Amino acid sequence: MECALDVSSASALALPCLDLSKRDMSELPEMEGCEHLRCLYLEGNRLSQLPPSLFSSCPHLQWLDLRNNRLTHLPQFIQRFRDLKTLLLQGNRLTALPTQLGEHIPASVLIWKQTL
Known about the structure:
The protein is of the alpha/beta class. The chain is 13% helix and 12% strand.
């Protein structure tokens, strides 16, 4: 099921946070025009990958909640989020994290617990 949410209302309102949690999404909606976003909540969906456009659409994210999805890996572009302070990853199918991720995000804010 794709998300039918129009995020343009968040863009028009210049909201700093957008909560798309528990919407049964398997893909992210187009996030164009969301450069102002600082927090993005995607917990409890069915996301198996993150689109490359996420970085260019939301370059100033400070909080990214990806808990309880179906991610098996994080794309290399995740390291480009220079402002990211918190990355929540519990409840995914990750077996490793990109090594470059720790160069930009302090290990203390990476919250990852492998569930078997």
